[in-house]
Write a structure and sequence with these properties.
The C terminus is likely disordered. The chain is of the alpha/beta class. 42% of the residues lie in helices and 12% in strands. The longest helix is centred in the middle third of the chain and has 25 residues. Helix 13 packs parallel to helix 14 and helix 14 runs parallel beside helix 15. Bound molecules: beta-D-fucopyranose. The site of beta-D-fucopyranose has 12 residues, from loops.
Length: 474
């Protein structure tokens, strides 16, 4: 079997987000964001790491864009920092902050790289959090001014805008679990936040479309299969409910299906935040949907005794996340079941592994991860999913939220003492796939793809895939 080709116009990209890479936390009039506050609060982030300097991308963006060109990216997905552009969330615009994104976009276009802009990747202006944050509607009402400010400024050169990155993680980790900024543990407030994020998405869409009539606008959702821990009916039922509470919670209303009933019952949500017209606003037509995929979770019914961990222990990344490529096909097909012909992008997919102590450019596990997930993406395309592009997470090693700098997700290694960047094998692997197609998994000869001893022996890779297959569907 030869290499399998992705469509000729398939977009190959990499993704980052503002707080995770920019640094320059107080430069040029930037306001305080909730991640500035959170990371400076003792005990919130591993090792006390903060995004104060991060990858220093704010000052090194030219070098970074040049590296993107070297590794042959068609597109770059980045986010804009709201507190950099409107320091207090509402009110005066900070022109120097906006100028940074202007320069970045120009640099990208000069190198032939298409910018894909995400407006909100988790750095809410602290002033808005002080007034209540996402659980209050005023935060959603502040969003369109920010959205139109960015769209007005960049819309002559940027065509792809996403409103939000992973609203589930924002409401759930930020307001229910408290492991992310602002670190609140308030069940009802988290549900209110989730609704207001979707309202803000709807308002943001209107604002972008008004500023840039030809823009292609969407939203980025993290989708993670929920699989029953056993074949017991109660587990199957529990997995279905968990799927509704997490995955359908956002995709269903955005596609005009409303909030899932079973999910709302399980969350014990009475919909008091829904105002007249909200559901239409949330369901306004989008032009694409972005899917972030990393792993799956097993669900055990609370009515049943705990189960033994999976045997044999599944392969995991440095985050402890199970490597489960078939889940990517599954979430893409699930998305298409809701969005039909709408273009879909994988807006994030990737893995953390410890840097090779001898040579940090060698990352065979990450190459294997990409290889198997691209295979899963290709299967989705063969089954008719309108998948238009794939963005690896992440361009650079960066600040991995509450985990700080220890997990490394980059196609490019970053030395946090010298800020030196070094391109990893996985970046070259992706470039080779974009150019020559995807080598077969079972007979892969990664020596020839990479000119390195990258992957595990073919047999091992194939059995890892089949071990996880077939998967119960969502
Ligand atoms: C996603 C986030 C991204 C990064 C990856 C590992 O949930 O969108 O910022 O942290 O996980």
């Amino acid at each position: 079997m030869g290499n399998r080709r992705f469509p000729a116009d398939f977009i190959w990209g990499a993704a980052t987000s503002s707080y995770q890479i920019e640094g320059a936390a107080a430069d040029d009039g930037k306001g305080e964001g909730i991640w500035d506050r959170f990371s400076h609060t003792a005990g919130r982030v591993r090792n006390g790491d903060t995004g104060d300097v991060a990858c220093d991308h704010y000052h090194r963006y030219k070098e970074d864009v040049s590296l993107m060109a070297d590794i042959g990216l068609d597109a770059y997905r980045f986010s804009v920092s709201w507190p950099r552009v409107i320091p207090a969330g509402t009110g005066p615009i900070n022109e120097p902050g906006l100028d940074f994104y202007d320069r970045l976009v120009d640099e990208l276009l000069a190198r032939g790289i298409q910018p894909y802009v995400t407006l909100y990747h988790w750095d809410l202006p602290q002033a808005l959090e002080d007034d209540g944050g996402w659980p209050v509607r005023a935060t959603a009402e502040a969003f369109p001014l920010y959205a139109s400010t960015v769209a007005d400024r960049l819309g002559d050169r940027v065509t792809h805008f996403a409103t939000f990155n992973e609203p589930h993680v924002v409401s759930d980790h930020g307001y229910r679990v408290g492991s992310h900024a602002p670190g609140r543990v308030e069940h009802d407030a988290a549900l209110a936040a989730a609704h207001h994020l979707l309202v803000a998405h709807g308002l943001g869409l209107q604002a972008i479309k008004a500023a840039v009539p030809g823009a292609s606008c969407g939203i980025v959702l993290n989708l993670e299969p929920r699989h029953p821990a056993t074949h017991h009916t109660l587990d199957i039922e529990a997995a279905g409910i968990a799927h509704a509470q997490v995955n359908r919670w956002f995709l269903d209303p955005v596609t005009g299906r409303g909030y899932p009933e079973d999910g709302a019952r399980a969350w014990n949500w009475h919909r008091q935040e829904i105002l007249k017209g909200d559901m239409d606003l949330i369901a306004a037509p989008i032009d694409f949907v972005g899917v972030n995929y990393y792993s799956r979770k097993f669900v055990r019914s609370p009515l049943l005794p705990p189960v033994e961990p999976q045997q044999p222990e599944p392969e995991r990344t440095a985050m402890g996340w199970e490597v489960f490529p078939a889940g990517l096909t599954e979430v893409l097909e699930f998305t298409a079941s809701r969005t039909g012909e709408l273009p879909i992008y994988v807006t994030e997919n990737g893995a953390a592994y410890p840097a090779d102590a001898g040579d940090p450019t060698r990352d065979p596990e990450r190459v294997g991860f990409f290889h198997r997930h691209l295979d899963a993406a290709h299967v989705a395309i063969e089954r008719g999913v309108p998948l238009r592009g794939y963005f690896a997470w992440s361009l650079l090693d960066n600040f991995e939220w509450a985990h700080g700098y220890s997990p490394r997700f980059g196609l490019i290694h970053v030395d946090y003492d010298t800020f030196e960047r070094r391109v990893r094998d996985s970046a070259r692997f992706l470039a080779a796939v974009a150019r020559d197609g995807l080598p077969p998994i079972a007979s892969v000869d990664d020596e020839s793809v990479l000119k390195t001893s990258a992957l595990a022996p073919p047999g091992e890779v194939a059995s890892e895939v089949s071990k996880n297959d077939p998967s119960p569907s969502l």
